[in-house]
Description:
heterodimer, A: Alpha-Beta Plaits, 4 domains, 5-stranded antiparallel β-sheet, globular, B: alpha/beta, Rossmann fold, 6-stranded mixed β-sheet, 5 helices, 17% strand
Amino acid sequence: MYTYDTYDQAMVDARVAEFRDQITRRIAGEMTEDQFKPLRLMNGLYLQLHAYMLRVAIPYGTLDSRQMRMLAHIARTYDRDYGHFTTRQNIQYNWIKLEDCADILEELATVEMHAIQTSGNCIRNISSDQYAGAAADEVTDPRPWAELLRQWSTFHPEFSYLPRKFKIAVIASPEDRAAMRLHDIGLELIRQDGALGARVFVGGGMGRTPMIAPEINPFVKADDLLSYLEACLRVYNRYGRRDNIYKARIKILIHEIGADAYRRQVATEFAHVKTLGIDPPLAELERIAAFFAPPAYDAANVEPDRTDPDFAVWLDQNVKPHKQAGYAIVNISLKPIGGIPGDATSAQIDVMADLAEKYSFDELRVTHAQNIVLPYVAKRDLYAVWHALRDAALADANLDLISDIIACPGLDYCSLANARSIPVAQKIATRFADMDRQRDLGELKLKISGCINACGHHHAGHIGILGVDKKGVENYQLTFGGSGAEDVSIGKIIGPGFDEDGVVDAVEKATEVYKALREGDERFLDTYRRVGLEPFKEAIYG
Amino acid sequence: MVEFRYRTDEVTEQPSVTLDAFLDQSNATAVRLEPDDDARALIPFLDRLTLIEVAFPKYRDGRGYSAARILREAGYQGELRAQGDVLVDQIAFMRRCGFDSFAPESSLNPDAVARALAHYDHAYQGAADAVVPIWKLRHG
């Protein structure tokens, strides 16, 4: 894991002092709320329906046990004893007091954490593959690149008042576990003629106008990458729309001028920016990469004993192959049946920290699907890990199944929402509570957003649910056929919406159609793509 | 009115003209850029300009930050002024992008500005100022 040097530490310490000063001026009335808003947002502080919400950055979703325990401590001390892990691999606290904020940031800074740029019209927390460093299919570990980008984008003077927020994801595997092409910039690290570089996709995103990012450059060399990104951002900062907040994301610019025109403008800007000497030498990437060296693996390769049937089920569902023989990747589901997707209590966060320290070389990951990963668990320890997780109600064996739902906070918390998301997620999970039934349905990614902003990634759901307000009543639209993986696609609305119970019934009918029509080991998504919408529509509306 | 100026030369007395007016004729030495003006149009004339004023009608509109960097990257040495809805907490970023004078519409507290400029000793990335980026300090 990356460790701060004195420069990194000085930056977060300075941020705490700066934000304390800003809060003091706000409370003293030296700033209006309108003037304070972008400042607090750039520190991840939102004013929600009931209270302030603080979003803490977990860069590329990677953290150690000490940091994880700090997250529990903050939940316990300053919030209501729980935290909410988000689709951008961060954590949110929903009940924060403004006057506690600077103290919280000060505590975070003691464990090399912060809330910098977790909101606002700036470059947000860089996201990545939660299996980075452990995945068998990766070309390289994407995290050093993500850390390089974190540093470059932190307090970027030119790009802190962009037309709109800006999200970057970095992956290094052909399998996309980070919804890379649904980001403003998606980078896929590849090797070309022996050298590492990035395929650059620009202009993806969800929201009210979902778009899949087109490829803008097939290969940018490692030591050109920051200049190239600077060029991408400068073209956007100068020409992105500012007349309408809903048309201000880079995807709209690229859609309006076309990928070719954008590519040409970036190429011209890059030719200029490259002369400025802003790219760090490769030695800087190597310095960072040294922190992500593989852990001291044990050579023993002990297969776990599968006699306990519950354990075997969990093993098959939540444990994934590792690039190191004798090791496995453990997914901890934060989706208990009837629970709130992504929520964890302080006690559970502590348990996960303990397990990481004892069994996973002190490392954890947060996934964009709002689960937690222990990336380096020896196979012989899997049974002990499972036992400890079960004792903490963290052993749900539902990874990628229908109850592994992504849901935004919705109208229960969010001031932008039109409808509640959490109760719908709870009802669907409860309807499909029978694990045999869930496993029979196989991989089925269900995602729920409580408004058109699509924080719950409904566009990328095999089944997506969008909550809207229909004349004062919550109404839920269904979409089918989305995917955030390497087979990326945007879901299509299937027809008129439903009330809360109606949408649960419709989802159930869709699964029945799938079961009747599936061939071989087709997933729901594959069957839908093969047979089209009609049979589903007939069953649901017929 | 210029409230903060980080230059030692004389303040230009000449009123600034619009970009269109400047490009039309003019031997003016001071120009005002609006957010949707292309700063690069001034590049052939930088030698004879002593003041470029960049308008910020709304603080949320960040196009002027790119305009400033483009002008400095092209070698402009004259005064680069941010005018309009300029707030305390933007001045540090503006300084990094090359602005060296500030004419905020609403008067700013000089102590708060001084504090805002003093918070950070370092910066991660190179920009239009003289700050040496952290990666360069690390690798000498």
